[in-house]
Design a protein that fits this description.
single chain, 25 helices, mainly alpha, globular
């Protein structure tokens, strides 16, 4: 029997299980670059307007740190910078996909059942990596085809797509290695996302201090990050095809480490044993809420710190965002509609906080689905066999699904207000104003967390569909106006109803309505969870 026996069957199983989620994130990410290209071609039709935009963007370290460097003033070069976060999102999806089909399968006991059949030693890891690799390659090809269809040169389009695809492949391989190191899926996800976070920080520091990619003193930090390589292939400028060798070699080295480790460790075990806890539990673990705090606190802290740093970057870039579009009335009008105010800096802050709210909703969904993960892992049933009620147990997890978005968006608003206040010289005025703008996004994020809770309570087998809803909201927000969708279609997303409190004349009625919808969803989730079987396959 070969070490890869059964790989083909496991690939089919993974594709069967991810038949909804996988196409959604591939297609969603693939259409974004083409939409950006069309927008730039429409908003900046002349070389002079693109040069003015380029001068304003490249001169501000905060914008360069957030989006990456830009090489040249062509529509393609500007599109590459605007789509700089695409590689980050692809990397995130790749890590989560590989960990889900490796370490999570072991933790749930399904890998042991499959291993009792005719299955090679490398089949599990190989099948997960093959699916992730194929998904990223398809994403890159579709993104390149979209740019070509938008009228951009084929060579630059192919190079950009290859850079994004290989970045996802790098972090898919990192996820495969992380799955071998710890005994829990949460630990593997934390390790993989920690490497991704480090890569992003290195890229951010290198781009911010590297004079926009023109050889500054700190640019060498970006060369240490796989996220920095995808920008430094210089698509649509003086293309550097040789840069693609870096992610290929990096992935090969990581894979050469992951494969031997995968067969030398015990099934269900990891390279690093879990840290032993105290012999007896403290009083804070006496109830379901204390246990939920213990399970969610690390994740909540990580998201809070990350959002705080993001807020500092967003606030520092606000003034430059307004300066880059001076003299272009069409752009000014679009940004004013996005932010709900005629002040371009405030329009930028309103738009970016709306995008941040989508990410915060992702935390709420993840926290709500933790209850389902505890159930499928067999840890919920022993607890519910005691005096702990089903309602209290699920409510403990849902508390963090609702509290988490409020905390991270509050921190984002505070950090953004601090940075923007320092740059404008009015910290006392901007800090509370942007805190309020961040809090105004919370009810929309709550709706998606409530929907995830309802799926856990009523349709647990389809609880992962909450991520598809989040992807749909992102698609409507990013492409709804570009595709000229009807207002009823845009109104499907709860984020469409969030008032822009940075403007004037806003009302709290939509916030109350969204909070009421959330309360109804959570109440229904608790009632349906109370009556269904535990566990539900």
């Amino acid at each position: 029997m070969s070490a890869f026996t059964g790989t083909r069957h496991l690939v089919r199983l993974i594709l069967r299980r991810d038949r909804v989620v996988l196409p959604i994130w591939i297609l969603l990410l693939a259409v974004l670059p083409a939409s950006y290209a069309g927008t730039y071609a429409e908003l900046y039709p002349t070389a002079a307007e693109r040069a003015a935009y380029l001068a304003g963007t490249a001169s501000n370290p905060s914008i360069v740190a957030l989006l990456g460097p830009v090489y040249g003033d062509s529509v393609g070069a500007l599109t590459v910078q605007r789509a700089g976060l695409l590689a980050l999102i692809a990397a995130l999806a790749s890590v989560l996909t590989v960990v889900r089909h490796t370490r999570t399968e072991e933790e749930a006991g399904r890998r042991e059942l499959l291993g009792a059949t005719v299955l090679g030693r490398y089949a599990g890891l190989t099948s997960a990596l093959l699916v992730a690799y194929a998904a990223n390659l398809l994403l890159g090809l579709l993104a390149a085809a979209g740019l070509v269809a938008a009228g951009l040169p084929g060579a630059g389009s192919l190079l950009f797509g290859a850079g994004v695809a290989l970045t996802g492949i790098v972090f898919a391989t990192v996820g495969g290695l992380a799955a071998q190191l710890t005994e829990s899926a949460a630990g593997a996800r934390g390790t993989g996302l920690g490497v991704l976070g480090l890569a992003f920080v290195l890229r951010l520091a290198g781009d911010a201090g590297g004079s926009g990619g023109t050889g500054g003193s700190a640019e060498w930090l970006s060369w240490l990050s796989p996220l920095g390589w995808s920008a430094r292939d210089r698509a649509f400028a003086d293309e550097r095809w040789w840069v693609l060798l870096l992610p290929v070699l990096f992935s090969a080295v990581v894979a050469l480490v992951a494969y031997p480790v995968s067969v030398r460790r015990d099934l269900g075990g990891g390279v690093f044993p879990p840290r032993l806890g105290p012999a007896t539990a403290g009083p804070r673990l006496a109830g379901p809420f204390g246990l939920a705090w213990r399970l969610h606190r690390g994740q909540l802290l990580g998201w809070t710190v990350g959002f705080g740093l993001l807020g500092l970057v967003l606030g520092g870039a606000a003034d430059a965002a307004g300066e880059t579009v001076q003299g272009n009335q069409q752009v000014a009008e679009i940004l004013a509609r996005l932010g709900g105010t005629s002040a371009l800096a405030e329009a930028y802050l309103g738009g970016t906080l709306s995008l941040t709210a989508l990410a915060a909703a992702g935390y709420g969904i993840q926290a709500a689905l933790r209850a389902r993960a505890e159930e499928t892992a067999g840890r919920a049933e022993p607890l519910l066999a005691t005096a702990v009620s089903r309602t209290r147990w699920l409510a403990a997890h849902l508390l963090f699904a609702l509290l988490g978005p409020a905390v991270v968006l509050s921190v984002t608003g505070l950090a953004t207000g601090l940075a923007y206040g320092l740059s404008s010289g009015d910290v006392g005025g901007e800090l509370p104003r942007l805190l309020g703008a961040g809090l105004a996004q919370v009810p929309a994020a709550w709706v998606l967390a409530g929907l995830a809770a309802l799926l856990v309570g009523r349709l647990p087998r389809f609880s992962a569909g909450a991520w598809a809803v989040l992807a749909g909201c992102l698609l409507l927000g990013q492409l709804g106006a570009v595709l000229e969708l009807d207002q009823w279609a845009l109104d499907i997303s709860p984020f469409t109803h969030t008032p822009q409190v940075l403007g004037s004349g806003w009302t709290a009625t939509p916030l109350v309505a969204l909070a009421a919808v959330t309360a109804a969803l959570v109440t229904l989730a608790l009632r349906t969870f109370h009556t269904r079987d535990i566990p539900t396959p």
